[in-house]
Amino acid sequence: MSGLKKYDAIIIGSGQAGTPLAFQFAKRKQSVAFIEKEHFGGTCLNVGCTPTKAYVASARRMWDYQQMEALGVDVKGSAQINLKKVKERKDNLVRSSVEGIAKGIEEDKNITVFKGKAEFTDLKTVTVNGQQLTAPQIFINVGGRPRIPEGFDSVPYLTNQSILELQEVPKHLIIIGGSYIGLEFGQMFRRFGSKVSIIEMNPHLIGREDEEISRTVEEILMNEGVHLRLKAKCISASLLDHERIRVDVDCEDGPPTLEGTHLLLATGRILNGDQLNLEATGLSLNDRGVIPVNDSLETKQKGIFALGDCNGKGAFTHTSYNDFEIISDHLWGKGKRKVSDRITTYSLFIDPPLGRAGMTRQQALDQGYEILEASYPMKKIARAREKGETQGLMNIIVDRKTNKILGAAVLGTGGDEIITSILQVMYADEPYTVIRDSVIPHPTISELIPTMLEELSAPENE
């Protein structure tokens, strides 16, 4: 065991919170021990947002090609996906960003990198590769890993990480899990040319959404030829031969088995806090594997903070980066930023995408709000018809007593960008009438949001 090395801060994990935090400490001439066991940039940069959105872009080009005739563009020949080139482009994007981070760290004399797995040995001591490190402030940004359910150890399954290493398009991709990861990969590989089957144990895909949104997502995927098996229970898999995998399902409808060439497990993630030997600090995980924190992201042990997925306050890149901003304000600012001020927002990057801000309809009702709501189908929006992209809908929920927006969903062309205009009004804490009475450029998708807000009404079941 090497001698104890002292730093001003220890940062465990180089994700979207840990990396900018390391540079902030270094900027202030404070010494940082920066621990990373795998690759700089965390999940988002290496196996999450950056690579998957690069694949989504390639899949979109395939879809564009398929729609050209309907838009009056004559094309001779056929389009074929070259997965090796798609992967090469993805690898170059990731490599460029990772090398940029590595270069910045290497050139900063205040940051010392330790490659390896970190474990606590006492309240303020961390060991990595036999080296003991200590600091008055320790920041945990360890993210998560794919959850592998029981019954799949005997088959060659893929995860969100390993599927990005394929160089040939699967003939038949079976996906277990009908939420964000499964749906994005399902649609993109269907557009690449795979037969795709998605198995979900719940009655609907992305069950956290209101049923209207979930059903519309199901329609979008089925319209592209994705096969859905819902209400599936007792799922297991076996290897038939070197080219075929059989998945057994207990569904209310359909045959009890599916056979495919590849199997993707998209059944959620396990948080990595369980790998840190937190017991040595007196900290413990809750029943969801989360490291509990307060509004400033500090654990019950003063000077130990948890950022990103592992604190249970959001499992997105934007929430992780906001964690960094909260910590930065806590350490060097006015200390007014807090997690509880954050409004839930995220996107589902199928095509067309879903943008979500705030509560769903059901969440608002469950919390006792008296609501007004309005919905508008994309097929009634001129700009969507002109673009030939009419799938989806917009929905908004308003507090009847205050006229404040509680939540909104835009599922349709540009939905991932349009949602920000609603989100900003929510952060400004202004009534929905600010949008209703605004003048929006024509022809756009957004111009129908004021029109939709003219039609607010109470839910039928009230």
Structural class: alpha/beta
Count, helices? 12
> Strand order, biggest sheet?
4-3-2-8-19
Which blocks of ≥5 consecutive residues have pLDDT under 50?
A: none
Distance between the termini: 67 Å
Q: How would the global form be characterised?
A: globular
Sketch the major β-sheet: 5 strands, parallel
Radius of gyration: 24 Å
Number of DSSP strand runs: 24
Topology of helices and strands:
Layout: E1 5-6, E2 9-12, H1 18-27, E3 32-36, H2 42-47, H3 49-67, H4 83-106, E4 111-115, E5 118-122, E6 125-128, E7 131-134, E8 137-140, E9 144-146, E10 157-158, E11 172-176, H5 180-192, E12 195-199, H6 211-223, E13 227-229, E14 233-241, E15 244-250, E16 257-260, E17 262-265, E18 269-271, E19 304-306, H7 317-332, E20 345-348, E21 354-358, H8 361-366, E22 371-377, H9 382-387, E23 393-399, E24 405-411, H10 415-427, H11 433-436, H12 448-453
Compose a concise summary of this entry.
By secondary structure, the chain is of the alpha/beta class. It has helices at residues 18-27, 42-47, 49-67, 83-106, 180-192, 211-223, 317-332, 361-366, 382-387, 415-427, 433-436, 448-453, and strands at 5-6, 9-12, 32-36, 111-115, 118-122, 125-128, 131-134, 137-140, 144-146, 157-158, 172-176, 195-199, 227-229, 233-241, 244-250, 257-260, 262-265, 269-271, 304-306, 345-348, 354-358, 371-377, 393-399, 405-411.
Defining traits:
462 residues; 5-stranded parallel β-sheet; 12 helices; 24 strands
Structural overview:
With 462 residues, the protein is α/β, with parallel strands linked by helices. The chain is 29% helix and 24% strand. The chain contains twelve helices and 24 strands. A five-stranded parallel sheet has the order 4-3-2-8-19, covered by helices on one side. Strand 11 (172-176), helix 5 and strand 12 (195-199) form a beta-alpha-beta unit. Helix 3 (49-67) packs across helix 5. The longest helix is centred in the first third of the chain and has 24 residues, at 83-106. The protein is globular, with a radius of gyration of 24 Å. The model has no long low-confidence stretch (mean pLDDT 95).
